Structures are given as C-alpha cells and as structure tokens.
Amino acid sequence: MGAVRSVIDGLRSGEWLNRARVRSYLLILAAANLLSLAWLLVSARNGFDLEGRLLGTDFVSFWAAGQMIQFGGNPYNIAAHAAAQGTVWIGQTGYTAFFYPPVFLLWCWPLGLFGYFPALASWLVLTGAALIGAVRVWMGRINWLAVAAFPPLVITITHGQTSFLLAALLGLGVWCAAKKQHFAAGVLLGLATFKPQFGVLVPLVLLAGREWRVIGWAGLTAVVLAGVSTLIFGTQVWFDWLSITRLAQDAMADGAIGFAKMQSLFAMVRLWGGGARLAFGMQTVLAAGTAATLVVLAWRRGLTLEVGAATLVGALLATPFLLDYDFVLLAFPLILLHARDPLPWERTAAAIAFAMPAFARPLAIATGVPLAVFVTTALFILLARRAALAEPATEV
Q1: Around Cβ 276, how many Cβ atoms within 10 Å?
Q2: CA-based torsion, 321, 327, 331, 337: positive or negative
Q3: 284 CB contacts (<8 Å, ≥6 apart)?
Q4: Quick check: 197 and 321 in contact, CB under 8 A?
Q5: What angle do CA 164, 166, 172 make, to 5 degrees?
Q6: How far apart are CA 310 and CA 337, in angstroms?
Q7: CA–CA separation, 247 vs 256, rounded Å?
Q8: Which of 14, 76, 148, 259 gives 20 to 30 Å between its CA and that of 279?
Q9: What is the Cα–Cα distance from 104 to 101, expressed in whole angstroms?
Q10: What is the end-to-end Cα distance of the chain in Å, rounded?
C-alpha cells in the first residue's frame, strides 16, 4: 500500500515530471513526428502514399471546392464535387465530403487558383504560421521542441486539415478578449465561424462575461462574411449547405467515418454499442453541463485567460463530431497550465493531454477504449477549478 500511495502522491504533485524527463519525452515524440513525416514523403510515389491515398487526404475536398467555384460550380453537389476530386485523385474509392458553411468558400476560393500540391503546401505553411503566431502570443516565445513534439500538428499536416487555422483564430481571439482587445477579439472569433461546431460555447461565455463589444464586433464580422459569401456565391448556396448538413448528421450517426476514429462522447457511446438516440442524448447532457460550468465561471470571474482556456477545452467536449487533428486547440490550455504554478493533478493531466492525440485513434481502433473522452473531460475539470480560483477579470 505504501508503494501505491507513493505513486498516487507523485502523480498528484507531478514531481515525476522533472526537467530532464520532460525533455526526454519531448525528444521521443518530436523524433516520432519528424520520422513519420519524413517516411511519408520519401515513400510517396507521384503524390500518393503506400496505401494509395493522396498526400493531404482531406485537403482534396477544400481544393476541389476552390476549383469548382472558379468556374461557377456548386461544391454542395456531391457528384460534381466528387468528380472535381477525381481530377487529381484518380481512382479514389471513397469520397471526401464538404460540409463547411458557405463562408468557408471564401477561404477555398484562392486555393483553386493553384495546382493541388502548391495549394496544399501554401495552405499548411500559411495556416501553420498563423498558429505559431498565436502560440507565441500566449507563450511569449516559441519552444520549438514542444512544437515539434505536439502530436496534433503532424496529424493536421498529413490530413491537410483546417485545424491550424481554426486554433489560431479561436486561441488568439480568446487571448485578445481576455486582454480587453475587443475589436481584434471580435474579428478573430467572427472569422472562426467557418467551423461553427467549435464555436457554440463562445457566444454563451461572451454573454456571461458581459463582453458586449467583443460580441458586437464578432457578430458584425460574421454578418459581413455571410453577406460577402451571398453576394459572390448566391443565396441558393445557403439552402444547398443546409440540405447537405442533414446528410452529414446521418452519416455521422451511422458511422460513415468510423466511431473509433472519432473522439467525442457521442462516438464512444456508439462504439460501445449504444444507439444514436442515446449517444446524442448523452452528448447533449455533456455539452449542457460544460456550457453551464463555463457560463457560471464567466459570470463570476469575467473572461479571464483561465476561463478562455477552459472554453477551448469545452469546445472539444461539446461537439459530437471530433477528430484527433482537432486537438490542436489543446495547445493554448496547455500553455496556460505550463505558465502557472501547478495545482494538484495539473502537471500529470497536462502531460497526458499533450501526448494523448498520438494514441487516441489507434488505441480506440485496436481496443475500443476511447481515451480522449476521459482525458479531455479531466483536463476541463482541472481548468474549471483553476478558473474558479483565479483573480477576476478587470474592466477596461
């Protein structure tokens, strides 16, 4: 019993994470990330990996949408969108869907001006630079070893996904809101509406925190984006998007993506044999509890960095559609925990959350154990505790 108590005490205090051990773990993760990327590039043939998948995989959806709108096409026409993907991914057996709202077409439009691989490289470099800039703002500097070791970064790169851009906008938007830079915060958060499932909690937190000017600028930005999208692409595109979102929900409920690949409570319930109604019900309860916690914190403390960090983790808990590359959002809460004197369990939870995205999907596929749900929930609880103990926000 003494040995067990000693282990628990060590995990609680986080003393096992000394500087030398942390550096060793980061080196291992960084080496794994860099070697996997190097192998992917070296082993690729004509832009395809050894399994016949186009490099960037998910990015083909954004690029094809950009190509289509250059010529007045409709990316929400599944057959036409699949045909556009087929021009670069010849022999593609599946379909990489495009369920983003019309405001995202403004981001896709310039991608269609280039060939697939120049567009992919430009997308990753520019959105990656935006993320690094946001990390620098939160951290005050860049720890390049930690950046190279962070698993969601390499996952995002290999998928060509939107996670760098979304995390940069939400992370920097929350930071600006906490620092009372109302205009910048509102614009950044408004620009992040291209992936609305991760912004559901943000308006609630802003309202509870009485951030009226941020709300105003965010709302104006969202309206302008919607207006510009309508002017360029027409009003019908909104109806087409709303129609296809119902297909997206059905596909998610039926497991078209694979429940082991998804990282939400909804996916966990479905993975363990629960029905869609039960899964949506439990996801709704978790989202409501997360929202209520954040609203109380924001009402009592204001929108502090601690409340903002908890909001970013809460965004991951609230959505039923969550994949491992979305864990890029964890960068900012982990930076905050690193910068503060640790409370019990925080260092251990942060270390596990940092490494978790590397193992979450393969572990769930191999064993049926959805590690991410438990780790993300624990991290949210610890951040909520820290937010409740932090100094209230000051009015500016």
Answers
A1: 16
A2: positive
A3: none
A4: yes
A5: 95
A6: 11
A7: 11
A8: 76
A9: 6
A10: 53
| Residue 76 in tokens | 């929400």
Residue 396 has pLDDT above 60, yes or no: no
Cα–Cα dist 231/225, whole Å: 10
More confident of the two residues 120 and 3: 120
pLDDT at 393 exceeding the cut of 80: no
pLDDT for the residue numbered 71: 87
What are 307-322's pLDDT values in tens digits? 999 999 999 999 999 9
Q: What is the pLDDT of residues 116-170, one digit of tens each?
A: 999 999 999 999 999 999 999 999 999 999 999 999 999 999 999 999 999 999 9
**Confidence at 90, pLDDT banded by 50, 70, 90:** confident
Ramachandran class of 14: left when φ > 0, alpha when ψ lies in -120 to 50, beta otherwise:
left
Q: Which residues contact 359 (CB under 8 A, 6 or more apart)?
A: 371
Q: Which amino acid would we find at residue 137?
A: V
CB 77 within 8 A of CB 170: no
> 214 and 182 in contact (C-beta within 8 Å)?
yes
Residue 332 has pLDDT above 60, yes or no: yes
